[in-house]
Amino acid sequence: MELPVVDFSSWHDSQDGAYRQRVAQELVDACQRVGFVRITNHSLPEATLNEAFGWMERLFALPEEEKMKAPHPAGWAVHRGYSWPGLEKVSQTLSTGNDEEVRKKLREVPDVKEVYDIGSDNNASQPNQWLPDDILSGFRDFITSFYWDCDRVGKEVLQALAIGLNLEDENYLSKKHSGNDNQLRLLHYLPVPAQDLEEERVSRCAAHTDWSSITMLFQDDCGGLEVEDISHPGTFVPVPPVKNSIIMNVGDLLQRWSNDRLRSTNHRVSLPGLSDRIEGPGRMTRERYSIPYFMSPDDDAVIECIPSCMSEEEPAKYEPITRANYNKMRASMMY
Ligand SMILES: O=C(O)CCC(=O)C(=O)O
Ligand SMILES: [Fe+2]
Predict the structure, then answer these.
(1) Residue of 209, 269, 271, 277 to mutate, ligand 1, most atoms within 8 A of C-beta
(2) pTM score of the predicted model
(3) Per-residue pLDDT tens for 274-284?
(4) 116: how many CB neighbours lie within 10 A of its CB?
(5) Cross-strand pairs, 6
(6) What mean pLDDT is predicted for residues 310-323?
(7) Whole-angstrom Cα distance, residue 228 to residue 207?
(8) Any residues with CB less than 8 A from the CB of 317 and at least 6 apart, and which?
(9) Closest atom, ligand 1, to C-alpha of 210
(10) Domains of the chain
């Protein structure tokens, strides 16, 4: 499986309808075949991305007690703030009724990463957990503007998807996203003995699909992301990092929205891609930083089959559902 590449250069300022249609078609083809695509020449400046990685390195380098001044609230309802290593466990498990036992079992193989989650300050149900500003002065301002930069790029991608899906309104998807329900994650995977990962005593991020409409991922040069080849289930293919490109993937909600035409593909993070990323006699993996940005429709947005994705032969498979109810169904096993 080759990861498809879509070149977005001049997407946002081109007046050439045929050109836009071609890019949009390539994007939709990739989302149907693979569910993952590398977007190059997008409109997020290199300097902005470098700055984002710089801030996250400074954030995670803070002493534990400082980071704990913005802790992730207990429980699963609020998804903001700092999560220390082992707190979060990504999984595909849905609630069974015996949640405590399932939770304990899932944590026998801890995820060795720390996370800082950020959303929109306009989202009252998901209050941001900011550090006191004197701890990392400037962080909040930069990250807030980065959040909205990412939202802008994400909406360009949603527009391209709408055009590629032959929707009359190119804002059909993006207008259900005010931007206030997106989520920005700063992820720091700690160094760990490669052998512990190989023998599955610990994990970095276990195989999962994302929930939202689309995810855009920025990664450092360490590697480790692997994507399932949907034509060979069970086979995971490394997606090596390419500086400044965005890895975009379809989430479960967009798969449902598109009547399963666009695919939400399993992915995971394990060993770094190259052996030079494993160091010393203890074979420690290098640390890794990544930034996923999840685009999510608004709470009350009703997700019902995209008109161009159904026909008489292919009727809508799913009932309409609000985004809030969809998330409720998915969230209860995370914390
Ligand atoms: O760190 C990565 O490269 C991927 C993380 C991821 O898949 C997620 O947070 O959903
Ligand atoms: Fe993911």
Answers:
(1) 269
(2) 0.92
(3) 777 788 888 88
(4) 23
(5) 39
(6) 96
(7) 9
(8) 259, 260, 305
(9) 10
(10) 5-331 (2.60.120.330)
State in Å: Cα 17 to ligand 2 middle.
33
User: In the prediction, which pLDDT does 335 show?
Assistant: 45
- Residue 229 CA to residue 1 CA, distance in Å, equals 6
- Taking CA atoms, 11 is separated from 23, 163, 164, 205, 298, in Å, by 8, 12, 13, 33, 25
Q: What is the mean pLDDT of residues 122-148?
A: 97
The 10s digit of each residue's pLDDT in 283-300 is: 888 899 999 999 999 999
139-164 and 17-33 helices, crossing angle to 10°? 100
Gap between the Cα atoms of 17 and 132, Å rounded? 48
State how far the Cα of 44 lies from the Cα of 62, in Å rounded to an integer.
Answer: 27
Block residue for tokens 């802008």: 152
Q: How many angstroms separate the CA atoms of 83 and 67, rounded?
A: 9
Residue 98 pLDDT class (50, 70, 90 cuts) = low
**Cα(310) to centroid of ligand 1, in Å?**
31
Q: Which amino acid is at 159?
A: Q
Nearest residue by C-alpha to atom 3 in ligand 1: 225
Residue 187 CA: which ligand is closest?
1
- The complex scores an ipTM of 0.99
pLDDT in tens, 25-49: 999 999 999 999 999 999 999 999 9
154 touches ligand 1 (CB under 6 Å): no
Contact 115, 129 (CB under 8 A): no
Residue nearest to atom 8 of ligand 1 (CA): 292
Closest atom, ligand 1, to C-alpha of 187: 1
From the CB of 239, is ligand 1 less than 6 Å away? Answer: no
| Distance from Cα 300 to the centre of ligand 2, integer Å | 23
Using an 8 Å Cβ cutoff, are 298 and 180 in contact?
yes
